[in-house]
Design a protein that fits this description.
Layout (H helix, E strand, L loop, with lengths): L2 H29 L2 H27 L13 H31 L11 H24 L2 H28 L5 H28 L6 H13 L5 E10 L2 E11 L4 H18 L3 E11 L14
Parallel strand pairs: 2-3
Antiparallel strand pairs: 1-2
Length: about 300
C-alpha cells in the first residue's frame, strides 16, 4: 500500500457517493420522501468533502520546501478539523429538523418500495466506511479516517431513514424524527471526538505514552550512550518528530560521537515508522574524579 492505494480509495468513494446521492434524490422525487431527499443531498455533499480530503492528503505528502521546512503534514489535521465542523453542522441540522417534525407532525404515507433505495445505500455505505477505515489506519492517513467517519454517518442516516419509513408505513408518524434525533446525537459525539484529535495534532501534542517509552528504551540501549535527557516529541499530522540530548564518554572522538547520533536516528526510524525527523544533541559525560590525599604517619 501507499499513496496510490489511498488515492484509489478516495476515488472509489467519490464515485460511489455521487452515484448513490443521485439515486437517492431521484427516488425522493419518485416517492415524495423528504427524508430521502435530505440523505441524497448529504451524500452529494460527501462527494465534495471527499474531494477536499483528497486535496488535503496530496498537500500533506508534498516534500519540504523553502517556506515549509518540516513538510506539509499538518494539512491532514486541518482537513480532519473541517470534517469535525461538517459533522457538527449536519448534527445540528438533523436535530432542528427532527424537533420541527415532532412539533408539527407529518402526514406522509409511503409504499414498501420506498425502502429499496435507503437499504441499498446503507449496505454500500457500511462496506465503504469499513474499507476506508481499514486503509486509513494501516496507512495512518487522518483525512481518510475522517472521511470514513463521514461515510459511516451516511450509513446511520440511511438506516434511520429505513427505520423511520418502516414505522411510517405502519402508521407511526413520529418514528422518523425520533430516529433522526438519535442519529444527531451520534453525529455530535463523532464531531467532538474527531475535532479533539485534530486540535491535538495541530497543537503538536506528544505521541502516546507507549510510543514515548519505546523511544526512551531505544535511546538507552544504543551502544555508546551513557545517559540522555531533554527528550521531546511532537506530532505533525501522522508523523512524529524527536529531539533528544545524549551523553557520551568525554574521551570519545567527534567521529564516534557522530556515529552514535546516527545510530540512534537509524534505530528510531526503523522501529517506529511514524518518526520523520530525529535531532540528536551530543554532550560529553562529565565524570566525577575522586581526589586522593596521602597521609603521612608521624614517627
Amino acid at each position: 500500500m501507499g499513496r496510490k492505494e489511498i488515492e484509489k480509495v478516495f476515488l472509489i468513494s467519490l464515485l460511489l457517493t455521487t452515484l448513490i446521492g443521485l439515486m437517492q434524490i431521484s427516488a425522493s422525487f419518485l416517492f415524495g420522501s423528504l427524508a430521502l431527499l435530505a440523505v441524497g443531498i448529504e451524500s452529494l455533499s460527501d462527494s465534495i468533502t471527499t474531494v477536499v480530503a483528497l486535496g488535503g492528503f496530496r498537500i500533506s505528502r508534498k516534500p519540504a520546501d523553502k517556506r515549509h521546512h518540516y513538510g506539509h503534514w499538518q494539512a491532514e489535521s486541518l482537513v480532519a478539523l473541517l470534517f469535525a465542523v461538517v459533522l457538527l453542522v449536519s448534527g445540528a441540522r438533523i436535530l432542528l429538523s427532527s424537533v420541527d417534525r415532532l412539533r408539527h407532525g407529518t402526514n406522509s404515507t409511503f409504499s414498501s418500495e420506498v425502502l429499496l433505495t435507503p437499504s441499498l445505500s446503507a449496505i454500500v455505505f457500511v462496506l465503504l466506511a469499513s474499507y476506508k477505515m481499514k486503509v486509513g489506519k494501516e496507512e495512518k492517513c487522518l483525512p481518510l479516517i475522517s472521511d470514513a467517519y463521514h461515510t459511516f454517518m451516511d450509513f446511520l442516516s440511511s438506516i434511520s431513514v429505513v427505520i423511520g419509513l418502516v414505522l411510517a408505513i405502519r402508521g407511526n408518524i413520529l418514528a422518523d424524527p425520533i430516529v433522526a434525533l438519535i442519529v444527531s446525537g451520534i453525529l455530535f459525539y463523532l464531531s467532538f471526538s474527531l475535532g479533539r484529535s485534530a486540535l491535538s495534532a495541530l497543537m503538536e501534542t506528544a505521541p502516546s505514552e507507549d510510543t514515548v517509552l519505546k523511544i526512551r528504551k531505544i535511546c538507552a540501549e544504543t551502544p555508546g550512550v551513557e545517559s540522555f535527557h531533554r527528550l521531546r516529541t511532537r506530532r505533525s499530522g501522522p508523523k512524529i518528530f524527536v529531539d533528544v540530548h545524549v551523553l557520551v564518554d568525554s574521551e570519545m572522538s567527534l567521529r564516534k560521537a557522530h556515529d552514535v547520533a546516527t545510530e540512534i536516528e537509524r534505530r528510531l526510524k526503523s522501529k517506529i515508522p511514524e518518526i520523520s525527523s530525529v535531532t540528536v544533541h551530543v554532550e560529553p559525560h562529565a565524570r566525577k574524579v575522586k581526589s586522593s590525599t596521602s597521609k603521612t604517619k608521624s614517627s
